[in-house]
Protein backbone atom coordinates (compact mmCIF):
# COMPACT_ATOMS: atom_id res chain seq x y z
CA UNK A 1 0.00 0.00 0.00
CA UNK A 2 1.33 3.45 -0.83
CA UNK A 3 0.28 7.01 -0.08
CA UNK A 4 -0.18 9.81 -2.53
CA UNK A 5 0.26 12.84 -0.40
CA UNK A 6 -0.61 16.44 -1.21
CA UNK A 7 -1.38 15.25 -4.71
CA UNK A 8 2.30 14.72 -5.35
CA UNK A 9 3.33 11.19 -5.94
CA UNK A 10 6.95 10.25 -5.41
CA UNK A 11 7.66 7.22 -7.55
CA UNK A 12 10.25 4.82 -6.14
CA UNK A 13 12.64 5.70 -8.95
CA UNK A 14 12.53 9.41 -8.02
CA UNK A 15 10.99 12.40 -9.79
CA UNK A 16 7.61 13.82 -8.92
CA UNK A 17 4.57 15.23 -10.56
CA UNK A 18 1.15 16.52 -9.72
CA UNK A 19 -1.91 14.38 -9.88
CA UNK A 20 -5.38 15.89 -10.11
CA UNK A 21 -8.29 13.85 -8.96
CA UNK A 22 -11.74 13.80 -10.52
CA UNK A 23 -14.62 11.77 -9.21
CA UNK A 24 -16.00 9.98 -12.23
CA UNK A 25 -19.64 9.71 -13.17
CA UNK A 26 -18.93 7.06 -15.77
CA UNK A 27 -20.02 4.11 -13.67
CA UNK A 28 -20.15 1.55 -16.46
CA UNK A 29 -16.51 2.16 -17.20
CA UNK A 30 -14.96 2.89 -13.83
CA UNK A 31 -17.49 1.48 -11.43
CA UNK A 32 -17.90 4.89 -9.78
CA UNK A 33 -14.23 5.20 -8.81
CA UNK A 34 -11.90 8.15 -9.16
CA UNK A 35 -9.97 9.23 -12.19
CA UNK A 36 -6.46 10.55 -11.95
CA UNK A 37 -5.19 13.34 -14.11
CA UNK A 38 -1.65 14.57 -13.90
CA UNK A 39 -0.86 18.23 -14.38
CA UNK A 40 0.95 17.44 -17.58
CA UNK A 41 -0.78 15.26 -20.12
CA UNK A 42 2.43 13.46 -20.99
CA UNK A 43 2.65 12.40 -17.38
CA UNK A 44 -0.93 11.18 -17.23
CA UNK A 45 -0.04 7.71 -18.40
CA UNK A 46 2.76 7.45 -15.89
CA UNK A 47 0.60 8.80 -13.08
CA UNK A 48 -2.31 6.51 -13.66
CA UNK A 49 -0.11 3.49 -14.28
CA UNK A 50 1.87 4.21 -11.13
CA UNK A 51 -1.25 4.49 -9.02
CA UNK A 52 -3.11 1.38 -8.13
CA UNK A 53 -6.59 1.02 -6.75
CA UNK A 54 -7.51 4.08 -4.69
CA UNK A 55 -8.40 3.02 -1.20
CA UNK A 56 -9.28 6.39 0.25
CA UNK A 57 -9.17 10.07 -0.49
CA UNK A 58 -9.06 12.91 1.93
CA UNK A 59 -8.09 16.56 2.22
CA UNK A 60 -4.64 17.31 3.55
CA UNK A 61 -6.05 17.68 7.07
CA UNK A 62 -7.73 14.28 6.80
CA UNK A 63 -11.27 15.54 6.25
CA UNK A 64 -13.20 13.63 3.61
CA UNK A 65 -13.18 14.94 0.08
CA UNK A 66 -16.58 16.05 -1.19
CA UNK A 67 -17.93 13.88 -3.94
CA UNK A 68 -17.78 16.53 -6.66
CA UNK A 69 -15.22 19.15 -7.60
CA UNK A 70 -11.64 19.53 -8.53
CA UNK A 71 -8.84 18.90 -6.07
CA UNK A 72 -5.38 20.24 -6.42
CA UNK A 73 -4.30 18.92 -3.13
CA UNK A 74 -5.33 15.63 -1.67
CA UNK A 75 -4.10 12.68 0.26
CA UNK A 76 -4.63 9.49 -1.56
CA UNK A 77 -4.07 6.02 -0.25
CA UNK A 78 -3.49 3.63 -3.11
CA UNK A 79 -2.83 -0.02 -3.53
CA UNK A 80 -0.26 -0.77 -6.20
CA UNK A 81 -0.33 -4.00 -8.11
CA UNK A 82 2.88 -3.93 -10.08
CA UNK A 83 4.21 -7.24 -8.75
CA UNK A 84 0.85 -8.96 -9.21
CA UNK A 85 0.59 -7.71 -12.80
CA UNK A 86 4.16 -8.67 -13.59
CA UNK A 87 3.74 -12.21 -12.25
CA UNK A 88 0.31 -12.62 -13.86
CA UNK A 89 1.61 -11.67 -17.31
CA UNK A 90 4.60 -13.97 -17.00
CA UNK A 91 2.58 -16.96 -15.80
CA UNK A 92 0.00 -16.45 -18.56
CA UNK A 93 2.87 -16.43 -21.06
CA UNK A 94 4.04 -19.74 -19.57
CA UNK A 95 0.52 -21.15 -19.74
CA UNK A 96 0.23 -20.17 -23.41
CA UNK A 97 3.44 -22.02 -24.10
CA UNK A 98 1.99 -25.11 -22.34
CA UNK A 99 -1.20 -24.89 -24.39
CA UNK A 100 0.63 -24.48 -27.67
CA UNK A 101 2.70 -27.57 -26.94
CA UNK A 102 -0.40 -29.60 -26.09
CA UNK A 103 -2.37 -28.27 -29.08
CA UNK A 104 0.48 -29.11 -31.44
CA UNK A 105 0.35 -32.71 -30.23
CA UNK A 106 -3.40 -32.73 -30.73
CA UNK A 107 -3.21 -34.63 -33.99
CA UNK A 108 -1.74 -37.60 -32.14
CA UNK A 109 -4.32 -37.47 -29.35
CA UNK A 110 -6.27 -40.48 -28.29
CA UNK A 111 -9.96 -39.67 -27.93
CA UNK A 112 -9.86 -40.68 -24.27
CA UNK A 113 -7.51 -37.78 -23.53
CA UNK A 114 -10.39 -35.38 -24.18
CA UNK A 115 -12.84 -35.85 -21.33
CA UNK A 116 -16.44 -34.70 -21.16
CA UNK A 117 -17.71 -33.00 -18.05
CA UNK A 118 -21.21 -33.41 -16.59
CA UNK A 119 -22.50 -30.65 -18.88
CA UNK A 120 -20.87 -32.41 -21.87
CA UNK A 121 -18.26 -29.67 -22.27
CA UNK A 122 -14.72 -30.90 -22.99
CA UNK A 123 -11.75 -30.76 -20.63
CA UNK A 124 -8.16 -31.66 -21.53
CA UNK A 125 -4.61 -32.04 -20.24
CA UNK A 126 -4.13 -28.34 -21.04
CA UNK A 127 -7.03 -27.22 -18.79
CA UNK A 128 -5.69 -29.13 -15.78
CA UNK A 129 -2.07 -28.43 -16.67
CA UNK A 130 -2.55 -24.65 -16.83
CA UNK A 131 -4.59 -24.61 -13.63
CA UNK A 132 -1.86 -26.53 -11.76
CA UNK A 133 0.91 -24.35 -13.20
CA UNK A 134 -0.76 -21.01 -12.45
CA UNK A 135 -1.75 -22.15 -8.97
CA UNK A 136 1.78 -23.37 -8.20
CA UNK A 137 3.49 -20.22 -9.55
CA UNK A 138 1.15 -17.80 -7.72
CA UNK A 139 1.65 -19.69 -4.45
CA UNK A 140 5.40 -19.69 -4.98
CA UNK A 141 5.51 -15.92 -5.69
CA UNK A 142 3.06 -14.62 -3.08
CA UNK A 143 3.10 -17.37 -0.42
CA UNK A 144 0.62 -20.22 -0.30
CA UNK A 145 -1.30 -18.61 2.58
CA UNK A 146 -1.85 -15.38 0.65
CA UNK A 147 -3.21 -16.92 -2.52
CA UNK A 148 -6.85 -17.66 -3.05
CA UNK A 149 -8.07 -18.72 -6.50
CA UNK A 150 -11.47 -19.22 -8.11
CA UNK A 151 -10.96 -21.47 -11.13
CA UNK A 152 -12.91 -23.69 -13.45
CA UNK A 153 -11.41 -27.16 -13.02
CA UNK A 154 -11.39 -29.68 -10.19
CA UNK A 155 -9.64 -33.03 -9.70
CA UNK A 156 -12.65 -35.37 -9.70
CA UNK A 157 -12.11 -36.88 -13.15
CA UNK A 158 -8.32 -36.88 -12.80
CA UNK A 159 -8.38 -38.74 -9.50
CA UNK A 160 -10.38 -41.70 -10.84
CA UNK A 161 -8.47 -44.99 -10.89
CA UNK A 162 -8.94 -45.59 -14.62
CA UNK A 163 -7.49 -42.15 -15.43
CA UNK A 164 -3.97 -42.73 -14.10
CA UNK A 165 -2.42 -42.42 -17.58
CA UNK A 166 -4.22 -39.11 -18.06
CA UNK A 167 -3.02 -37.89 -14.67
CA UNK A 168 0.53 -38.87 -15.57
CA UNK A 169 0.27 -36.86 -18.79
CA UNK A 170 -0.93 -33.82 -16.81
CA UNK A 171 1.94 -34.16 -14.32
CA UNK A 172 4.45 -34.50 -17.17
CA UNK A 173 3.04 -31.45 -18.98
CA UNK A 174 3.12 -29.36 -15.79
CA UNK A 175 6.72 -30.31 -15.08
CA UNK A 176 7.87 -29.48 -18.61
CA UNK A 177 6.17 -26.10 -18.25
CA UNK A 178 7.52 -25.35 -14.75
CA UNK A 179 11.02 -26.27 -15.87
CA UNK A 180 10.71 -23.33 -18.27
CA UNK A 181 9.85 -20.89 -15.44
CA UNK A 182 13.34 -19.29 -15.29
CA UNK A 183 13.18 -18.42 -18.99
CA UNK A 184 10.05 -16.40 -18.12
CA UNK A 185 11.80 -14.71 -15.21
CA UNK A 186 10.03 -16.87 -12.60
CA UNK A 187 11.29 -19.40 -10.12
CA UNK A 188 10.57 -23.03 -10.90
CA UNK A 189 10.51 -25.96 -8.46
CA UNK A 190 13.82 -27.41 -7.29
CA UNK A 191 12.70 -30.87 -8.37
CA UNK A 192 9.86 -32.11 -10.54
CA UNK A 193 6.43 -32.05 -8.86
CA UNK A 194 4.86 -35.37 -7.97
CA UNK A 195 1.29 -36.46 -8.66
CA UNK A 196 0.15 -35.42 -5.20
CA UNK A 197 1.59 -31.92 -5.55
CA UNK A 198 -0.01 -31.40 -8.95
CA UNK A 199 -3.40 -32.56 -7.66
CA UNK A 200 -2.99 -30.29 -4.65
CA UNK A 201 -2.15 -27.30 -6.83
CA UNK A 202 -5.32 -27.87 -8.88
CA UNK A 203 -7.52 -28.41 -5.83
CA UNK A 204 -6.22 -25.35 -4.02
CA UNK A 205 -8.17 -23.28 -6.57
CA UNK A 206 -11.32 -23.78 -4.56
CA UNK A 207 -12.24 -20.26 -3.54
CA UNK A 208 -15.87 -19.29 -4.02
CA UNK A 209 -15.07 -15.62 -4.58
CA UNK A 210 -17.41 -13.06 -3.07
CA UNK A 211 -17.46 -9.38 -2.12
CA UNK A 212 -14.51 -9.24 0.28
CA UNK A 213 -10.78 -9.67 0.09
CA UNK A 214 -8.37 -10.55 -2.65
CA UNK A 215 -8.59 -13.53 -4.95
CA UNK A 216 -7.53 -14.59 -8.42
CA UNK A 217 -9.98 -15.74 -11.06
CA UNK A 218 -8.68 -18.26 -13.58
CA UNK A 219 -10.08 -19.88 -16.67
CA UNK A 220 -7.14 -22.13 -17.57
CA UNK A 221 -8.44 -22.74 -21.09
CA UNK A 222 -11.41 -20.69 -22.15
CA UNK A 223 -12.96 -22.06 -25.31
CA UNK A 224 -11.78 -25.64 -24.79
CA UNK A 225 -13.93 -26.59 -27.77
CA UNK A 226 -11.98 -24.16 -29.95
CA UNK A 227 -8.77 -25.54 -28.47
CA UNK A 228 -9.53 -29.17 -29.36
CA UNK A 229 -10.60 -28.05 -32.84
CA UNK A 230 -7.26 -26.32 -33.39
CA UNK A 231 -8.98 -22.94 -33.33
CA UNK A 232 -9.12 -19.91 -30.99
CA UNK A 233 -8.97 -20.20 -27.19
CA UNK A 234 -7.67 -18.07 -24.32
CA UNK A 235 -5.95 -18.33 -20.96
CA UNK A 236 -7.70 -15.84 -18.67
CA UNK A 237 -6.41 -14.61 -15.33
CA UNK A 238 -7.87 -11.75 -13.29
CA UNK A 239 -7.24 -10.35 -9.82
CA UNK A 240 -10.22 -9.28 -7.73
CA UNK A 241 -10.18 -7.12 -4.65
CA UNK A 242 -13.25 -6.36 -2.57
CA UNK A 243 -15.58 -7.33 -5.39
CA UNK A 244 -13.84 -5.37 -8.14
CA UNK A 245 -11.76 -6.70 -11.01
CA UNK A 246 -8.40 -4.98 -10.59
CA UNK A 247 -6.19 -6.76 -13.13
CA UNK A 248 -6.98 -8.71 -16.25
CA UNK A 249 -4.56 -10.78 -18.33
CA UNK A 250 -5.69 -12.61 -21.44
CA UNK A 251 -3.38 -14.97 -23.29
CA UNK A 252 -4.54 -15.67 -26.85
CA UNK A 253 -2.07 -18.18 -28.34
CA UNK A 254 -3.75 -18.34 -31.77
CA UNK A 255 -4.63 -14.67 -32.07
CA UNK A 256 -1.71 -13.02 -33.86
CA UNK A 257 -0.52 -9.52 -32.97
CA UNK A 258 -1.58 -8.41 -36.41
CA UNK A 259 -5.16 -9.01 -37.56
CA UNK A 260 -4.01 -9.63 -41.12
CA UNK A 261 -2.35 -12.86 -39.97
CA UNK A 262 -5.62 -14.17 -38.55
CA UNK A 263 -6.96 -15.28 -41.93
CA UNK A 264 -3.68 -16.96 -42.59
CA UNK A 265 -3.90 -18.77 -39.29
CA UNK A 266 -7.40 -20.08 -40.01
CA UNK A 267 -6.39 -21.17 -43.48
CA UNK A 268 -3.28 -22.80 -42.06
CA UNK A 269 -5.25 -24.88 -39.56
CA UNK A 270 -7.90 -25.78 -42.09
CA UNK A 271 -5.26 -27.25 -44.36
CA UNK A 272 -3.81 -29.06 -41.34
CA UNK A 273 -0.45 -27.40 -41.54
CA UNK A 274 0.21 -28.23 -45.18
CA UNK A 275 1.19 -24.61 -45.67
CA UNK A 276 4.43 -23.24 -44.39
CA UNK A 277 4.01 -20.20 -42.11
CA UNK A 278 4.72 -16.72 -43.42
CA UNK A 279 8.31 -15.68 -43.07
CA UNK A 280 7.63 -12.72 -40.79
CA UNK A 281 8.81 -14.56 -37.70
CA UNK A 282 6.24 -14.39 -34.94
CA UNK A 283 2.97 -14.58 -36.91
CA UNK A 284 1.86 -17.72 -35.15
CA UNK A 285 2.90 -16.76 -31.68
CA UNK A 286 -0.31 -15.12 -30.57
CA UNK A 287 -0.47 -12.39 -28.00
CA UNK A 288 -1.07 -11.56 -24.35
CA UNK A 289 -3.22 -8.56 -23.41
CA UNK A 290 -3.43 -6.98 -19.98
CA UNK A 291 -4.83 -4.00 -18.11
CA UNK A 292 -5.11 -2.58 -14.64
CA UNK A 293 -8.40 -1.05 -13.61
CA UNK A 294 -8.39 2.73 -13.57
CA UNK A 295 -5.14 3.08 -15.52
CA UNK A 296 -6.91 4.07 -18.73
CA UNK A 297 -4.51 1.82 -20.61
CA UNK A 298 -4.52 -1.66 -22.04
CA UNK A 299 -1.49 -3.39 -23.45
CA UNK A 300 -0.60 -6.22 -25.76
CA UNK A 301 2.65 -8.13 -26.12
CA UNK A 302 3.58 -11.01 -28.41
CA UNK A 303 3.92 -14.52 -27.05
CA UNK A 304 7.44 -14.68 -25.83
CA UNK A 305 9.44 -17.84 -25.67
CA UNK A 306 12.44 -16.59 -23.78
CA UNK A 307 11.84 -13.79 -21.30
CA UNK A 308 15.49 -13.82 -20.35
CA UNK A 309 16.37 -12.29 -23.69
CA UNK A 310 13.31 -10.10 -23.86
CA UNK A 311 12.55 -6.68 -22.47
CA UNK A 312 8.82 -7.44 -22.28
CA UNK A 313 7.76 -3.99 -21.19
CA UNK A 314 9.35 -2.53 -24.30
CA UNK A 315 7.87 -5.02 -26.71
CA UNK A 316 4.36 -4.32 -25.42
CA UNK A 317 2.16 -1.98 -27.37
CA UNK A 318 -0.84 -0.04 -26.23
CA UNK A 319 -4.19 -1.16 -27.58
CA UNK A 320 -7.36 0.83 -28.07
CA UNK A 321 -10.89 0.12 -29.10
CA UNK A 322 -12.06 1.01 -32.60
CA UNK A 323 -13.31 4.52 -33.33
CA UNK A 324 -16.06 3.24 -35.65
CA UNK A 325 -19.42 4.32 -34.29
CA UNK A 326 -21.60 3.84 -37.37
CA UNK A 327 -23.25 0.39 -37.13
CA UNK A 328 -23.03 0.09 -40.92
CA UNK A 329 -19.27 -0.24 -40.61
CA UNK A 330 -19.21 -2.15 -37.34
CA UNK A 331 -18.31 -5.82 -36.87
CA UNK A 332 -20.12 -7.75 -34.19
CA UNK A 333 -18.79 -10.92 -32.67
CA UNK A 334 -20.48 -13.69 -30.77
CA UNK A 335 -19.95 -17.30 -29.61
CA UNK A 336 -19.44 -19.98 -32.23
CA UNK A 337 -21.90 -22.38 -30.63
CA UNK A 338 -25.54 -21.39 -30.92
CA UNK A 339 -26.25 -23.39 -27.79
CA UNK A 340 -24.12 -20.82 -25.92
CA UNK A 341 -25.85 -17.73 -27.31
CA UNK A 342 -28.91 -17.19 -29.48
CA UNK A 343 -27.66 -16.45 -32.99
CA UNK A 344 -31.15 -15.65 -34.24
CA UNK A 345 -31.78 -13.03 -31.54
CA UNK A 346 -28.45 -11.29 -32.14
CA UNK A 347 -29.01 -11.40 -35.93
CA UNK A 348 -32.30 -9.53 -35.39
CA UNK A 349 -30.63 -6.99 -33.09
CA UNK A 350 -27.77 -6.44 -35.50
CA UNK A 351 -30.18 -5.91 -38.38
CA UNK A 352 -32.36 -3.51 -36.41
CA UNK A 353 -29.44 -1.22 -35.49
CA UNK A 354 -28.08 -1.26 -39.04
CA UNK A 355 -25.14 -3.66 -38.73
CA UNK A 356 -24.49 -4.97 -42.24
CA UNK A 357 -21.50 -7.25 -41.86
CA UNK A 358 -21.74 -10.95 -41.13
CA UNK A 359 -21.05 -11.82 -37.48
CA UNK A 360 -17.54 -12.79 -36.50
CA UNK A 361 -17.97 -16.04 -34.58
CA UNK A 362 -14.99 -16.76 -32.40
CA UNK A 363 -14.46 -19.22 -29.56
CA UNK A 364 -13.58 -17.90 -26.12
CA UNK A 365 -12.62 -14.55 -24.65
CA UNK A 366 -10.71 -13.81 -27.84
CA UNK A 367 -13.97 -11.97 -28.60
CA UNK A 368 -13.14 -9.54 -25.77
CA UNK A 369 -9.60 -9.29 -27.13
CA UNK A 370 -10.97 -8.43 -30.59
CA UNK A 371 -13.04 -5.54 -29.18
CA UNK A 372 -10.19 -4.27 -26.97
CA UNK A 373 -7.76 -3.92 -29.82
CA UNK A 374 -10.21 -2.59 -32.38
CA UNK A 375 -10.72 -5.65 -34.61
CA UNK A 376 -14.47 -5.61 -33.89
CA UNK A 377 -16.89 -3.12 -32.34
CA UNK A 378 -19.68 -5.14 -30.74
CA UNK A 379 -19.85 -8.35 -28.70
CA UNK A 380 -23.21 -9.78 -27.70
CA UNK A 381 -24.03 -12.92 -25.76
CA UNK A 382 -27.51 -14.10 -24.85
CA UNK A 383 -27.39 -17.50 -23.20
CA UNK A 384 -30.49 -19.64 -22.90
CA UNK A 385 -32.74 -18.98 -19.89
CA UNK A 386 -31.43 -20.68 -16.77
CA UNK A 387 -27.75 -20.63 -17.76
CA UNK A 388 -25.66 -18.71 -15.25
CA UNK A 389 -22.54 -17.04 -16.58
CA UNK A 390 -19.37 -17.78 -14.58
CA UNK A 391 -17.01 -15.02 -13.50
CA UNK A 392 -13.93 -16.72 -15.03
CA UNK A 393 -15.49 -16.52 -18.51
CA UNK A 394 -15.56 -12.70 -18.37
CA UNK A 395 -13.47 -11.04 -15.62
CA UNK A 396 -10.17 -10.58 -17.48
CA UNK A 397 -11.85 -9.56 -20.74
CA UNK A 398 -14.10 -6.95 -19.16
CA UNK A 399 -11.33 -4.94 -17.50
CA UNK A 400 -9.19 -5.07 -20.66
CA UNK A 401 -12.02 -3.72 -22.84
CA UNK A 402 -12.87 -1.01 -20.30
CA UNK A 403 -9.31 0.20 -20.01
CA UNK A 404 -8.93 0.14 -23.80
CA UNK A 405 -11.82 2.61 -23.90
CA UNK A 406 -14.83 0.34 -24.37
CA UNK A 407 -18.04 -0.27 -22.45
CA UNK A 408 -19.25 -3.60 -21.03
CA UNK A 409 -22.58 -4.08 -19.29
CA UNK A 410 -25.47 -6.47 -19.07
CA UNK A 411 -28.45 -5.90 -21.36
CA UNK A 412 -29.97 -3.57 -18.76
CA UNK A 413 -26.92 -1.29 -19.02
CA UNK A 414 -25.54 -2.23 -15.59
CA UNK A 415 -21.93 -3.20 -14.93
CA UNK A 416 -21.34 -6.94 -14.50
CA UNK A 417 -21.24 -7.86 -10.83
CA UNK A 418 -18.23 -10.05 -10.06
CA UNK A 419 -18.72 -9.82 -6.31
CA UNK A 420 -21.36 -12.45 -5.70
CA UNK A 421 -19.53 -15.74 -5.92
CA UNK A 422 -18.63 -17.84 -8.92
CA UNK A 423 -21.61 -16.70 -11.00
CA UNK A 424 -22.49 -13.32 -12.47
CA UNK A 425 -25.60 -13.15 -10.29
CA UNK A 426 -28.29 -10.70 -11.25
CA UNK A 427 -27.19 -10.50 -14.87
CA UNK A 428 -29.97 -8.87 -16.85
CA UNK A 429 -30.62 -11.00 -20.00
CA UNK A 430 -27.21 -10.95 -21.65
CA UNK A 431 -23.82 -9.30 -22.07
CA UNK A 432 -23.08 -6.38 -24.37
CA UNK A 433 -19.59 -5.05 -24.96
CA UNK A 434 -18.99 -2.18 -27.36
CA UNK A 435 -16.11 -0.03 -28.49
CA UNK A 436 -18.05 3.11 -27.59
CA UNK A 437 -21.05 4.50 -25.74
CA UNK A 438 -23.02 5.36 -28.89
CA UNK A 439 -23.06 1.85 -30.28
CA UNK A 440 -23.69 0.48 -26.81
CA UNK A 441 -26.74 2.67 -26.29
CA UNK A 442 -28.18 1.63 -29.66
CA UNK A 443 -27.85 -2.06 -28.85
CA UNK A 444 -29.38 -1.66 -25.40
CA UNK A 445 -32.38 0.12 -26.91
CA UNK A 446 -32.71 -2.56 -29.59
CA UNK A 447 -32.70 -5.30 -26.92
CA UNK A 448 -35.51 -3.55 -25.07
CA UNK A 449 -37.51 -3.16 -28.25
CA UNK A 450 -37.28 -6.81 -29.26
CA UNK A 451 -36.94 -8.75 -26.02
CA UNK A 452 -40.62 -9.38 -25.40
CA UNK A 453 -41.12 -10.91 -28.82
CA UNK A 454 -38.03 -13.15 -28.48
CA UNK A 455 -38.25 -16.69 -27.20
CA UNK A 456 -35.48 -16.12 -24.66
N1 LIG B 1 -24.85 -23.59 -22.37
C1 LIG B 1 -23.98 -22.60 -22.30
N2 LIG B 1 -24.40 -21.37 -22.46
C2 LIG B 1 -23.53 -20.37 -22.40
N3 LIG B 1 -22.21 -20.52 -22.15
C3 LIG B 1 -21.75 -21.76 -21.95
C4 LIG B 1 -22.59 -22.83 -22.02
N4 LIG B 1 -21.89 -23.93 -21.79
C5 LIG B 1 -20.63 -23.53 -21.58
N5 LIG B 1 -20.54 -22.23 -21.66
C6 LIG B 1 -19.33 -21.45 -21.43
O1 LIG B 1 -18.91 -20.84 -22.58
C7 LIG B 1 -17.51 -20.79 -22.64
C8 LIG B 1 -17.23 -20.60 -24.06
O2 LIG B 1 -18.00 -19.51 -24.40
P1 LIG B 1 -17.92 -18.84 -25.75
O3 LIG B 1 -18.60 -17.52 -25.66
O4 LIG B 1 -16.50 -18.75 -26.19
O5 LIG B 1 -18.73 -19.81 -26.69
S1 LIG B 1 -18.24 -20.59 -27.94
O6 LIG B 1 -17.27 -21.60 -27.54
O7 LIG B 1 -17.70 -19.61 -28.89
O8 LIG B 1 -19.45 -21.19 -28.51
C9 LIG B 1 -17.09 -22.03 -21.98
O9 LIG B 1 -15.86 -21.86 -21.33
P2 LIG B 1 -14.77 -23.07 -21.28
O10 LIG B 1 -15.41 -24.21 -20.56
O11 LIG B 1 -13.70 -22.42 -20.50
O12 LIG B 1 -14.38 -23.40 -22.69
C10 LIG B 1 -18.20 -22.27 -20.96
O13 LIG B 1 -17.91 -21.79 -19.68
MG1 LIG C 1 -14.77 -25.73 -19.62
MG1 LIG D 1 -14.43 -20.47 -20.09
MG1 LIG E 1 -12.23 -23.20 -19.40
UniProtKB/TrEMBL annotation:
Keyword Hydrolase (UniProt): yes
Name of the gene encoding the protein in the UniProt record: LOC103698562
Keywords associated with the record: Hydrolase, Magnesium, Metal-binding
InterPro entries the UniProt entry points to: DPNP, Inositol_monoP_metal-BS, Inositol_monoP_superfamily, Inositol_monophosphatase-like, Inositol_monophosphatase_CS
Domain of life: Eukaryota
Organism: Phoenix dactylifera
The keyword Membrane belongs to this UniProt entry's keyword annotation: no
SUPFAM superfamilies documented for this protein: Carbohydrate phosphatase
Protein name, UniProt field: 3'(2'),5'-bisphosphate nucleotidase
EC numbers for this chain: 3.1.3.7
Family in the record: Belongs to the inositol monophosphatase superfamily.
Catalytic reactions on record: adenosine 3',5'-bisphosphate + H2O = AMP + phosphate; 3'-phosphoadenylyl sulfate + H2O = adenosine 5'-phosphosulfate + phosphate
GO process terms (BP): phosphatidylinositol phosphate biosynthetic process; sulfate assimilation
Signal sequence segment: none
Pfam families named in the record: Inositol_P (PF00459)
Example of a GO MF term: 3'(2'),5'-bisphosphate nucleotidase activity
PROSITE patterns per record: IMP_1, IMP_2
